[in-house]
Design brief:
Radius of gyration: 44 Å
Number of helices: 5
Structural class: alpha+beta
Helix content: 25-40%
Order of helices and strands: HEEEEEHHHEEEEHEEEEEEEEEE
Strand order of the largest sheet: 2-9-12-11-10-13
């Protein structure tokens, strides 16, 4: 009985050893999983149109008649006219904070000048009196010298205050200095824009814009830093279209009448674009203060070759695409033209229907 049990135990251990051996690692190497070959996107050279439109937002304002500037630099003090006020030529619009000091200096200067002028006049009157009385020649000579001394003192006073002794009316010159700190309306009209109190201004800073309340135009304020890019392809007299923002389906024909320097006749400091309608719409549809959209067609090319921007590469000053050649992919230099966010014009280097490989 004991012998049979031993044999059975031996058989169990042998079978277990074979089973465990079968569970071990295979002696043959596993086949690696292949990586997928990357597929590059391709693009086909198309033929069609490229239209570049620029939309600008403007406001209907009275047609500008004049722009007013201070004659000296300073800081704006009091402002006596606001937007939409009707003003008359010569009306005081604003003054500078520096005016008070200038006036104080002017008053003291005026008193000093008047004092010396009186001394000259008194010396001259005394001379005339002596001459009328046939006074002794020596007394007349002495008085003539007194007149000269009084005139010298007057000239020195004028020079002290930077006034021209040869001026026929130095006090008027003094008044002119005071007037430089004041700004007067250059014409009759309506205030389109006005400066704010406290602003620093120079002689080239537009302070007030005066317009004609009976004639309207559209003024577009160009974005600072982008104005050159926006207007480089525009010109004065260029046709545009205008739509009121509250009636987008209405379209009016118009033209650009003024661009800032150096692109047009406007001031380089005034980054605005001016547009005038070809016709006169109803007053209810077109009035001062209305906001409008000005559409400018900067380019319109028909039947040109194009590719999407993603298909074109630019490296080291070269503009090229990748095409499949007989010996595999190769570079093809191209010349490009107009650009939009969706299309780039192909001037040369490719033909319609040609396929290029993306990055």
């Amino acid at each position: 009985m004991k012998k049979r049990i031993s044999i059975s135990l031996f058989s169990f251990i042998t079978i277990l050893a074979f089973v465990l051996a079968g569970c071990g690692p295979s002696s043959s190497a596993a086949t690696p999983t292949p990586y997928p070959t990357p597929v590059r996107k391709t693009y086909t050279v198309g033929k069609g149109d490229i239209v570049i439109n620029l939309e600008l937002f403007g406001q209907v304002t009275p047609k500008i008649l004049s722009t007013a500037y201070f004659q000296m630099s300073g800081h704006v003090g009091d402002v006596y006219a606001q937007v939409n006020d009707i003003v008359k030529k010569g009306q005081l619009l604003a003054d500078l904070t520096e005016l008070k000091d200038i006036q104080t200096t002017a008053y003291s200067t005026s008193d000093a000048i008047k004092t010396e002028q009186i001394n000259v006049e008194m010396a001259q009157l005394m001379l005339e009196k002596l001459q009328a009385q046939h006074a002794q020649e020596v007394d007349i000579k002495i008085q003539e010298k007194q007149v000269e001394l009084a005139q010298i003192a007057l000239n020195e006073t004028l020079l002290k205050y930077n006034l021209d002794p040869s001026s026929p009316d130095p006090l008027s010159d003094l008044d002119a200095q005071v007037a430089k700190a004041k700004l007067f309306s250059p014409t009759d009209g309506i205030v389109i824009s006005a400066v704010s109190v406290g602003r620093a201004v120079a002689t080239t800073t537009p302070v007030f814009t005066i317009g004609d309340g009976k004639q309207m135009e559209i003024v577009v304020n160009l974005t600072s830093g982008e104005s050159d890019q926006q207007i480089k392809d525009m010109y004065e007299g260029m046709a545009v279209s205008v739509s009121p923002n509250d009636q987008p389906d209405v379209i009016w024909a118009a033209k650009i009448t003024q661009l800032p320097s150096p692109y047009g006749t406007g001031s380089a400091n005034d980054q605005t674009l001016h547009v005038v309608l070809d016709g006169t719409p109803a007053a209810a549809d077109y009035k001062s203060g209305d906001t409008v959209t000005v559409s400018v067609e900067l380019a319109n090319k028909k039947g040109i070759l194009w590719l999407p921007p993603a298909a074109i590469r630019q490296v080291g000053g070269r503009t090229f695409v990748i095409i499949n050649g007989e010996n595999g992919p190769k570079r093809a230099d191209i010349e490009i033209g107009l650009k939009t966010k969706d299309k780039i014009e192909i001037i040369s280097g490719l033909t319609e229907g040609q396929v290029v490989v993306g990055p």
